[in-house]
Design goal:
The complex is a heterodimer of chains A (389) and B (209). Chain A is of the alpha/beta class and 389 residues long. Helices cover 28% and strands 21% of the residues of chain A. Helices cover 48% and strands 0% of the residues of chain B. The chains are: A alpha/beta (389), B mainly alpha (209). At the A-B interface, strand 2, helix 6, helix 7, helix 9 and helix 12 of A face helix 6 of B.
Amino acid sequence: MKALCWHGKNDIRYDTVPDPKIEHPRDAIVKTTSCAICGSDLHLYDHFIPGMEHGDIMGHEFMGEVVEVGSENKKLKVGDRIVVPFTIICGECDQCKRGNFSVCERTNRRKDLGDKAFGHATAGLFGYSHLTGGYAGGQAEYVRVPFADATHVKVPSTLTDEQVLFLGDIFPTGWQAAVQCDIQPTDTVAIWGAGPVGQFCVRSAVLLGAKQVVMIDNVPERLLMAEAGGAITINFDNESVIERLNELTQGKGPEKCIDAVGLESHATRSIDAVYDRVKQATMMESDRPHVLREMIYVCRPAGVLSIPGVYGGLVDKIPMGALMNKALTVRTGQTHVNRWTDDLLRRIEEGQIDPSFVITHTVGLDQGPEMYQTFRDKLDNCIKVVLKP
Amino acid sequence: MNYLEHASTPRQSSLAPSDKLARGLGFYSLGLGLVELLAPRAMTRALGMEGSENLVRAYGAREIASGIGVLSDNPVPALWSRVAGDALDLATLATALSDDNPKKGNVKIAMAVVLATALVDVMAAKSSTALHVRPRRMPIVDYSDRTGFPKPAEAMRGAAKDFETPPDMRADIGTGQRLEPMQRDLVSRTPANTDPVGQPPAMNNQVGL
């Protein structure tokens, strides 16, 4: 079969690889009908996440048709149409029972690596390094889904792929980011990063009733899309984020802040961004945490920082004094996808939201390698790429 | 929906030839920089520029900085810095072209090498800029109709009011009895951190699943 494989920094190739097989009775094999490039795939593309190996199949946003099921998998049958959550879950461990699916205790088959990197391993993820299990990803014609009897969302045929594909990651990720803020009708929610997750953060915060939603970025077309979703926008190339946020909140700062950027922030005109660039390039720091610093600084005391943006390792110069003294609550984590999907699928079916709004490019899987570059470099007004194997 | 105009023909790899060239230049920069930094006397002797060792060391540090930049995730500025560095190298070498320099021939060879390298640097910088840098006057597609909602966004504010934040994600854990939005005006009339009977509230760590 064909798949997009990682071959080193900035080197994604359209390769021929062996077809996947059932390896465990709970498995299923899915024929991919649609998959997508996620912003967090770019951290692998830029090689900021350790633990990738040559030939690893990329991708963790995908859906398709079940073509084979393992003998113990009683929940799925051949022909089922499913979206596959990016977090692989057993559904039975203590964390899964609590709904903390992204830290499932059983699905990371490279627990040894996860333990070394993070102290305790997190769940297995598709196509996201060997720290999270080294599972083959979904940017491929076929995918083996481990623990498939728990790791799936059945979707009705009445909805298109484009409407449901993002249930596997970015929609619940944006939703969880907003939910973690515990949004109240009086809240101003400031969101950094108008990429796909940021766009879903905006819609989620609006649906959950925030008084004001503010989007911070410097990419004009992305700000336009955020504005369409109900956000007040701040282009940090043109105005001061801190001054504008204070102006919008009578000098008190936003109650809730969401970092939808993660480890590769591009705040080109700030001193700390230059500092991070130098430290990252010289391998003295793995992540560029400009957004974290700014959120801590602008957030209203006793506010909440929600961090869906992916961080991979070590950061520097985090203003812990401000974080502690302002009594800020920090909520973060990979998304507990299955915790939200039933509710979000219902909202899609009821027409409350149509997630396909975010798609700007739909191309064949063979165009994946160049789309990684187009998406990374923000060329061609690219916001979200869907690939059709 | 397909707005793809940038890409025309499928590429086998996302790594373009210009990226590979840039990477090669990055390693070349690191190598040359190390030599200049660690063995400046060998270079000044070969070029008849004795006494300029500290200058060569400084140029070595510059080369290393350029090399690190070229090998980073944003190589374009560092590639252009290499071009500027080439110009500086040529200007410095030109000062050693005096007739009393017995190594004048070596200087000419060095200048030819730097010139050739400069051409490669310009080529790499221009092609990387074209490939990776977002044009300043790039036409912007108007996504202002991409609401994702069936109605204008303002009409959708609070449409998910049926959703209840799970207890483990509430912002007021341990700070008081949770009130529904319509009860919020009561908060101002209730002493902080007390429940209606005046007792501190119990922590609720149960996950409602």
